[in-house]
Specification:
The chain is of the alpha+beta class. The protein has a domain at 30-83. Helices cover 42% and strands 17% of the residues. Strands 1-2 form a two-stranded antiparallel ribbon. β1 (33-39) and β2 form a beta hairpin. It is globular. The two termini are 22 Å apart. This is SpoVT-AbrB domain-containing protein. Residues 8-53 form the SpoVT-AbrB domain. Pfam families: MazE_antitoxin.
Length: 84
């Protein structure tokens, strides 16, 4: 993984502009959701992918996968907090 450092300023209201190349690469646009994950080295900004984008209309599969994703996110948060 190539580490690319970009520096930006946080506004008075706490907003930061995500660079166009990052928005395009991760398909982020107006209304896209992101998650902040604290690690021992800093903060990661992670795109949140809606389940509808991953799966068809089968509700049972969506519920199962949704629960799996929630468990993985919780595990990731615990791992990140343990690194501190």
């Amino acid at each position: 993984m190539v580490r690319k450092e970009l520096g930006y300023t946080i506004t008075e209201k706490g907003t930061v502009t995500i660079p166009a190349e990052i928005r395009k690469k991760y398909k982020l646009g107006k209304g896209s959701r992101i998650e902040f994950v604290e690690t021992g080295e800093g903060v990661l900004i992670v795109p949140v992918i809606p389940l509808e984008d991953l799966f068809g209309a089968d509700k049972a599969i969506k519920e199962t996968v949704y629960q799996m994703i929630k468990e993985l996110q919780e595990e990731r948060r615990k791992e990140a907090s343990d690194e501190e």
